[in-house]
Amino acid sequence: MDLLLTIVVSTTLGISFIPVILTILKTDKDNRRIFRPLFYVFLSVNSIWYSVLFIQLLQANQALNIHSHIALEIFTSSLLFITRFLFLIAFVRLILLLLDFDIPKTFKLALKLSGFVIAGFWLLGWLAFFFLKSGALSDNLLLYTDILIFFIVIVSCVYLIYQTKLVPENKSGKAIRMLAFVLLIPMLLGLLKWLVGGILMLENPVWERLSIHLLVLLMNLLFSLWLIKYGKELKGFRILKTHLNNTDELFEKYNISKREMEVIQLICEGYTNQQIADKLFISIETVKDHNSRIFLKTEVKNRTQLARLFLR
């Protein structure tokens, strides 16, 4: 029965790949810059759950000797960590691309350090298994990794939705906002499932597997519907980037200086005062002075009103 359920679920999830693959193949080279990382996110999040299904099939074999059991534990823990880490890399790269942020050197360094840390976790997990005959350390590390994924995805999607509010209403902004919801909804439901399961102490393996399959299937279906809805608009699909409109007219009207123009551009791109100071190599007090003068000249009260003024 478990094998039949696994086959049915795997086939259903596999079918959900078809719209994604067809859309990628039909897009031109320019649009593939966006849809390639989208596909990597889609593929990596599915690889997490497919790896779980694969591991369950392996562990169902009870005729394993002690050496085979140790090898299986090492293989499964490594596979679970790798798939989660690849998803985080793919997702962060996608968010940076949509927000039109260059990948900073510090981020690349953080990825390398994270790789060393995860390798250390694997080593500790293996040592704990060999000497303590316990997989509790690996299980706890996987739990913390899942919590990290929930946190990064939810915060990034909320921030992405907020950024789309700052650009003029167009097909690109709407498509990206809906994509954020596609990624956000299953994660929120997964977090709710995890919290409810922890509070009520639910430990039903069948329900656990089924709920995970349903969440992945939901994400695949939402992703496919998103592609069907916005795939026809790929010709004009652009990365979410703020472009100031009617700049010459507005700058002349409000007597905006060149430095104030740079500050306005960064404000419209969602930079904080500290980030603007770092970007322009000025102090944060100078940034605040520029903000005050800009607000006074344009007669706006906050950053949102300023962005709407220059992006409409």
TrEMBL record:
One Pfam family recorded for the sequence: GerE
Top-level taxon of origin: Bacteria
Signal peptide: none
GO terms assigned for molecular function: DNA binding
Keyword Iron-sulfur: no
Keyword Ribonucleoprotein included in the entry's annotation: no
PROSITE patterns in the record: HTH_LUXR_1, HTH_LUXR_2
Residue stretches spanning the membrane: 6-25, 37-58, 78-99, 111-129, 141-162, 174-195, 210-228
Record keywords: DNA-binding, Membrane, Transcription, Transcription regulation, Transmembrane, Transmembrane helix
A single GO BP: regulation of DNA-templated transcription
Domain HTH luxR-type span(s) in chain numbering: 249-312
InterPro entries: Sig_transdc_resp-reg_C-effctor, Tscrpt_reg_LuxR_C, WH-like_DNA-bd_sf
Name of the protein in question: HTH luxR-type domain-containing protein
Organism, scientific name: Prolixibacter bellariivorans
